[in-house]
Amino acid sequence: MAHSDQKTPAKIIISISALNKWYGDLHVLRDIDLDVKKGERIVIAGPSGSGKSTLIRCINYLEKYQGGKIVVDGVELIDDRKIIENIRREVGMVFQSFNLFPHLTILENCTLGPIQGLDLPKEQAIEKAMHFLNKVNIPEQADKYPGQLSGGQQQRVAIARSLCMNPDVMLFDEPTSALDPEMVKEVLDIMVSLAKEGMTMLCVTHEMGFAKEVADRVIFMDEGQIMEQNNPVEFFTNPQHERTKEFLKQIFF
Amino acid sequence: MFELIALLSFGDQGWGDELLKGLGVTLALAFATVPFALIFSFLVAWSKEAPNRFLRMAGHGYTTLFRSLPEILTLIIIYYQSQAILNSFTSLFLPGISISINPFVAGMLALTLVFSALGSEVVRAAYRAVGKGQLEASYSVGLSSRKAFLNVILPQMWRHMLPAFGNLWLILLKDTSLVSIIALSDIVRYTNMAIATTKEPFFFYTVLALVYVSLSFISGRGQMLIERRVNRNMVGGR
């Protein structure tokens, strides 16, 4: 894992160029260019409908796109089953609505991917799952079912489930938006500790405190375009674009 | 009253053994149809959700056709018409040989067609009820679509399908009575034979009704047990 204080030039792990996507007539992503370096933490902000979720969903091909290209770890995303499956194993994703598997225990939620996707032996998968459940502070819930857990706990399981695949990159799609306010912190704490360990992260979130604390770069999107990107200090204190200023005024009252 | 009960005894005098035999045929037909109807329900549902336009059209056409035809008409077409068509074919190549379709097989085929048309809608609704999020989550941990379906989607579909399939099972059980018109000796046919001989229609129809009510009661119990088992892990919604 590359630590942020290492001075070796970081390699580019995700490269997006001239990405365009339409839903019918609706142009939802317009000429997106974005390079993500290994170990970089990026927060993507913007009003709803700006295309930020769609953008990160393109990275593991949950959304198809009509123009441009995405290269993940040297491999271009093309409509090929094997390539897509491999990229999805390297790119973890955490969803707004958790999407845990309700018919499986917490432990089984975490071992399904490694066993079925990576062909890991069951014992190793369980060992790994317990390691990451420990990391998200809920090893004692391993034998329960998702429905028995609080929202915050479920989202932490979802993070552990992704980590069990040993991803190179983690995508977070508004991970705290569906949580009760008092549970937001327990999820953000996990994300902060992940960031501190050098995980490459792309987070779509409205948690500007999180952005200030860990982001290397904040990207502001509107109407399917990247309007502005900067380091968090500049982004919050000296926004360039009119639309960014307006947005920041809205979220900080 | 006692003479009536005696009519249900086994042996030469009573109709008990014949009715039991008929019940056996009724149940055998229903149980034999279920696996085929289930498999076809999934296949037809899958074709209706397929990316290929012609597959989708075929699936919808199948559903529309067999949902709109009265079951009895489907049965008659399968039994008589297909027999005629088969024979006109074989007479071209093998003159003098006539093929007759086994009424049990014809009944199974007709009931499979009808119940897979209805069942495919149950499967499709269940697939949608499980939700896209589950599929996306499976993909995100590197599962292929086949593994995602088998490990994540299908186990959750049963919960949504069972109540509707329970209903279909009851309708299927009752629709087996239609095969009595194509010379298959199910319980309805034996009942009619008993009535023709004994001239006791009220009694025998009452017995028949009680048999169907008991079957439905037992089915309901069975369904409850299965549902409880399938739902045992579902605590509080998502």
What order do the helices and strands come in, and which of them pair?
The complex is a heterodimer of chains A (253) and B (238).
Chain A: E1 12-23, E2 26-37, E3 41-45, H1 52-59, E4 67-72, E5 75-76, H2 81-90, E6 91-94, H3 106-118, H4 122-135, H5 151-163, E7 169-173, H6 181-196, E8 200-204, H7 208-214, E9 217-222, E10 225-230, H8 232-237, H9 242-251
Parallel strand pairs in A: 3-8, 3-9, 6-7, 7-8
Antiparallel strand pairs in A: 1-2, 1-4, 4-5, 9-10
Helix pairs in contact in A: 3-4, 3-5, 4-5, 5-6
Chain B: H1 2-6, H2 16-48, H3 53-68, H4 71-93, H5 103-130, H6 132-140, H7 145-175, H8 187-198, H9 201-230
Q: Report the CATH architecture of chain B.
A: Orthogonal Bundle
- The rounded distance between the terminal residues' Cα atoms of chain B is 58 Å
Amino-to-carboxy terminus distance of chain A: 39 Å
How would you state the average pLDDT of chain A, rounded? 92
The major beta sheet of chain B can be summarized as: none
Query: H/E series of chain B, N to C?
Result: HHHHHHHHH
Task: Kindly identify the CATH topology of chain B.
Answer: MetI-like fold
| Rg calc of chain B | 22 Å
What's the average pLDDT of chain B?
A: 90
With helices defined by DSSP (H or I, 4 residues minimum), what is the helix count of chain B? Answer: 9
* Strand order within the widest beta sheet of chain A: 6-7-8-3-9-10
Structural class of chain A: alpha/beta
